[in-house]
Write a structure and sequence with these properties.
α6 crosses α7 and α6 crosses α9. Strands 6-7-8-9-10-11-12 form a seven-stranded mixed beta sheet. Strands 2-1-3 form a three-stranded antiparallel beta sheet. The chain has ten helices and twelve strands. The protein has 384 residues and is of the alpha+beta class. It holds the Pfam family MINDY_DUB. One of its GO terms (molecular function) is cysteine-type deubiquitinase activity. This is MINDY deubiquitinase domain-containing protein.
């Protein structure tokens, strides 16, 4: 199946340009990364072919897009010493282009990222792609500030959190609560994690938004990981904005950015290319004509519908996270059962081996006395 992406013409930095819109699979890392390359002025020399491809096509084929991206990667690698935006921490292994280029198609599917609750990520091969292009990957799924009551969880990754939560569940279900210090600590951490995961099902917190505002310089673009999706993120005048790439806004030229000031979607607003607040234009689905209303009734209805869809997505995300925790629990339980079975098998084999050995012969009193004296003079202890 040939994957293709729709395009949209917008204005950014007083210049006309085109961006990619999401397909039916939702916002992917490839779209977010490509849109940064299209909009960021420091990539102008490397992205001329990419801009031409997106500008001249109503729909861009994925294979054509990947070819151009691979070409840009090669060009950047050859001239990386000439650019300040290239990450100088790229390892020798990551400089192997053949290895990196095989990872490019993964940007359109599931990307292996493991966020840590301090705002960083556990390193992985896929992250090297972002470092190669000098594009920052960030997230706002942060618990506390590292100095509060949640400081002990601050450095945990999402995978570690799931393992800890599943381990506490395993102890509770199979071993029983023993009320020792170690288990009490595990249960306390598990309760905090469960509360945190439930309260942040969209993988964004208020602490996370503050963190992003603090670490990102003004007028810079990056890729935001949130809710298992990726979005192009801009910080401008100390305000965060995400690029609107939903196909539903393709024909609405005044809807370009959405503010990211709250985890509550109802508090975020849409903005045009000049960062003036705008409301979506309502269109008749059948005729494509704008619907003119004398009041804000239609706007209110649309906003409520959008919020309902967001809440439904949040519920799906929470359900998905719960399923992952259950899977971790099953994995730990299976692992423990296998260990117990292996231990029983070893014990059984050992007993069989011992029973198959010849029994010791009867020793005469004189032999017994002689043997005893020898044992006394020999300090070696043989344990059977």
């Amino acid at each position: 199946m040939c994957i293709q992406y729709a395009t949209k013409s917008i204005e950014y930095g007083k210049k006309k340009c085109s961006i990619l819109l999401q397909n039916e699979n939702g916002p992917c890392a490839l779209i977010a990364l490509v849109n940064v390359l299209l909009l960021e002025t420091q990539f102008e020399n490397e992205t001329e072919d990419l801009k031409t491809l997106v500008k001249d096509s109503k729909k861009v084929q994925q294979h054509e897009l990947l070819e151009v991206i691979a070409s840009i990667a090669l060009h950047i690698t050859k001239s990386k010493t000439k650019h300040d935006y290239i990450d100088t921490s790229i390892s020798k292994e990551e400089s192997d282009m053949s290895k990196l280029l095989t990872l490019l198609p993964n940007l359109n599917t599931g990307l292996n990222v493991n966020p840590i609750f301090d705002g960083t990520f556990e390193d992985s091969a896929e992250l090297s792609l972002f470092r190669l292009f000098g594009v920052r990957l960030v997230h706002g799924w942060i618990i506390g500030n590292g100095q509060d009551e949640n400081s002990e969880l601050y450095k945990l990754s999402y995978d570690e959190a799931l393992n800890m939560y599943a381990h506490a569940d395993e102890i509770s279900n199979n071993k029983g609560y023993q009320d020792n210090v170690n288990e009490t600590c595990i249960f306390e951490k598990s309760d905090k994690l469960k509360s945190f995961l439930n309260d942040s099902s969209t993988q964004l917190t208020s602490d996370g938004i503050c963190h992003l505002q603090k670490i990102l310089p003004n007028n810079t673009l990056s890729v935001l990981f949130r809710n298992d999706h990726f979005a192009t993120l801009l910080k401008r005048d100390d305000i965060l904005y995400t690029l609107v790439t939903d196909l539903g806004y393709k024909m609405q030229s005044t809807i370009i950015w959405e503010s990211l000031i709250s985890t509550d979607s109802s508090l975020n607003d849409f903005y045009d290319s000049d960062f003036m607040e705008n409301l979506p234009i309502h269109e008749d689905i059948l005729t494509g004509k704008e619907i003119i209303s004398d009041n804000n009734e239609m706007t209110s209805i649309d906003r409520k519908m959008a919020l309902q869809l967001q809440e439904e997505e949040d519920r799906k995300m929470a359900k998905s996270m719960s399923k992952i925790v259950d899977q971790k629990h099953v994995q730990l339980k299976t692992k423990q059962t296998n260990k117990q079975h292996h231990k029983k098998t070893l014990n059984s084999e050992r007993k069989k081996k011992m029973s198959s050995q010849p029994k010791s012969q009867n020793i005469s009193p004189s032999q017994n006395s002689s043997t005893s004296s020898k044992r006394k003079s020999n300090s070696t202890c043989v344990i059977m």
